[in-house]
């Protein structure tokens, strides 16, 4: 039972080790032009996923304040710019 508990606790490290072992055994899967298409997967999908996950972790109060601040800054900048012309 302790082994199962340990595996549940260290699931991420076990997954990394398995991914590295799989890449060592069959490297042709991840080469350019291979089935994973890393030139597309890493460039676009991975970056989009990282930004999406970081956006999900934002607190709603922070997002609301930023949404409110953007139009205010734009309007004040626009008004001051047109005053001096």
TrEMBL record:
<dbReference type="InterPro" id="IPR038770">
    <property type="entry name" value="Na+/solute_symporter_sf"/>
</dbReference>
<dbReference type="GO" id="GO:0005886">
    <property type="term" value="C:plasma membrane"/>
</dbReference>
<comment type="similarity">
    <text>Belongs to the bile acid:sodium symporter (BASS) (TC 2.A.28) family.</text>
</comment>
<dbReference type="Pfam" id="PF13593">
    <property type="entry name" value="SBF_like"/>
</dbReference>
<protein>
    <submittedName>
        <fullName>Sodium/bile acid cotransporter 7 isoform X6</fullName>
    </submittedName>
</protein>
<dbReference type="InterPro" id="IPR016833">
    <property type="entry name" value="Put_Na-Bile_cotransptr"/>
</dbReference>
């Amino acid at each position: 039972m302790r082994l199962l508990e340990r595996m549940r606790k260290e699931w991420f490290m076990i997954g990394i080790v398995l991914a590295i072992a799989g890449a060592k055994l069959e490297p042709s899967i991840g080469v350019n032009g291979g089935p994973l298409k890393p030139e597309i997967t890493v460039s676009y999908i991975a970056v989009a996923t990282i930004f999406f996950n970081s956006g999900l972790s934002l607190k709603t109060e922070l997002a609301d304040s930023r949404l409110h601040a953007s139009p205010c800054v734009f309007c004040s900048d626009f008004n001051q710019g047109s005053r001096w012309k």
